[in-house]
Design a protein that fits this description.
- It is a single chain.
- The chain is an all-alpha fold.
- 80% of the residues lie in helices and 0% in strands.
- It contains 15 helices and no strands.
- The chain has helices spanning 4-23, 30-52, 56-59, 62-86, 91-100, 106-117, 122-150, 158-167, 170-184, 190-201, 203-221, 230-257, 262-272, 278-286, 291-319.
- α5 (91-100) runs antiparallel to α7 and α13 (262-272) packs antiparallel against α15 (291-319).
- The longest helix is centred in the middle third of the chain and has 29 residues, at 122-150.
- The chain is globular, with a radius of gyration of 19 Å.
- The two termini are 18 Å apart.
- The relative contact order is 0.18.
- It holds the Pfam family Mem_trans.
Length: 320
């Protein structure tokens, strides 16, 4: 099965969500309810049970962790440097741009996509869990940067802000509970395991449907924006060049350099080549920094991914 088949399935569910939102078949706030359900319940459940049922040796993919995180950090720092070169002292803008170029949708799109591409392979969820955890850490770094540059009356130290952003994240909580169960060699009762599995199985369709609804809202929000101004178009193109092309290319070389091969190599490239997550837009909106550009970049990147991902997958299989 080529990646086009699961991509059609993934984007098909997203398109259905977009149409339902546009035609108002469901209440306008349905996307918010679905997002909260998936984020706080379904994703933590599926990652918890997937990690709990894996040997701890299978979870601790140190090469994958090192290669993926190093590539992500390098792209982040390069983007910050380039942004500050053209907009000196605009550290908040640089942080949001860099986050747009690194923080992929490894949960809402990545998990469903890998589950379809690698059916019956728990390693797909392990890879998605690792990528999601590393993305949360990068999100925390950007959050601290925004707090330091925009909030002069902050109540907590930067380190405290970063730690709170990580430990309060439900995906992080689900992953660490699953890792702890695996490390301690605990076997969950079959009824409890089945409950988590059934809840987790709802995550993929609900997440993709919600993404489609969010994109419909974003398109409506962007109707009057100057999407096609030359400056804006250049910025969007550069951000998505880093996110969809350069980051997966760097992930490929970094993973290869530390000895990662086979399915984990392919998974790493796919996860790093996903479009920017909507969380970046929400963060940008919260700090009133690059919110419109972030929304436009997510829309642009999601469309481009449909064409770029099959090419990247083929290149990885050819040169791995």
């Amino acid at each position: 099965m080529t990646i086009l088949t699961p991509l059609f399935a993934v984007f098909g569910i997203m398109l259905l969500g977009t149409l339902v939102q546009k035609l108002r078949f469901l209440p306008v706030e349905t996307d918010q309810v679905l997002n909260q359900y998936v984020y706080y319940i379904a994703f933590p459940a599926i990652l918890l049970i997937a990690l709990a049922q894996q040997p701890i040796e299978e979870i601790l993919q140190w090469g994958f962790i090192a290669g993926y995180s190093a590539a992500m950090l390098m792209i982040y720092l390069i983007c910050v440097g380039i942004s500050l070169l053209f907009n000196p002292k605009q550290h908040a803008i640089a942080a949001v741009r860099a986050l747009n170029a690194t923080f992929g949708n490894t949960a809402f799109i990545g998990i469903p996509l890998l589950v379809i591409i690698f059916p019956e392979q728990q390693s797909a969820l392990v890879a998605a869990a690792i990528a999601s955890l590393l993305s949360v850490l990068m999100f925390a770094v950007a959050l601290v940067s925004l707090e330091l540059t925009t909030n002069t009356h902050r109540q907590h130290h930067a380190v405290v802000i970063m730690c709170l952003a990580v430990v309060k994240n439900p995906i992080v909580i689900g992953c660490f509970i699953g890792i702890a169960i695996s490390a301690l060699g605990i076997t969950l009762p079959s009824g409890v395991a089945m409950m988590f599995q059934q809840i987790g199985n709802t995550s993929s369709p609900c997440a993709l449907f919600a993404v489609g609804m969010v994109l419909a809202k974003a398109m409506r929000y962007q109707k009057d924006s100057k999407v096609f101004s030359l400056t804006n178009l250049i910025e969007l193109s550069l951000i998505n060049l880093f996110k969809l092309i350069l980051q997966p290319a760097l992930v490929f070389f970094m993973l290869k350099s530390v000895g990662v091969s086979g399915d984990y190599l392919v998974m790493g490239v796919i996860l790093s080549a996903l479009p920017t997550a909507a969380s970046v837009y929400l963060l940008a909106q919260r700090y009133n920094t690059q919110a419109s550009t972030s929304a436009q970049g997510i829309l642009f990147g999601t469309i481009v991914t449909f064409f770029s991902l099959p090419i990247l997958e083929q290149l990885v299989k050819t040169y791995s």
